[in-house]
Amino acid sequence: MALQDGGRLASTVGGADAEGVAARGITGTDVYAQSDPEVFRTVMGMAGEGSLEVPITRTFGFDDLAQALGLVGELRSRGKFAVTISG
Questions:
Q1: Rounded distance, CA 85 to CA 87, Å?
Q2: Model-level pTM?
Q3: Distance (Å, rounded) from C-alpha 27 to C-alpha 17?
Q4: How far is 71 from 64, CA to CA, in rounded Å?
Q5: How do strand 8-11 and strand 80-84 relate by DSSP bridges?
């Protein structure tokens, strides 16, 4: 795992060894989502109706993906980024 000392780690697969990375000043957190079929149906219904809004603050071309990920990694992003893929 490549992490900068003093950084932050969030793992969706239970890989954030909080005690192990703390020695390097890294904050580690495991992040889990719980699925709820009723909430999923509601969100999908909203998407189908067109009433679900996801504000996209910036769009990047696929060739600029590294820049987009860099901004997210620096915690300088607000809202959602979209990546367009030409084909």
A1: 6
A2: 0.41
A3: 9
A4: 11
A5: unpaired
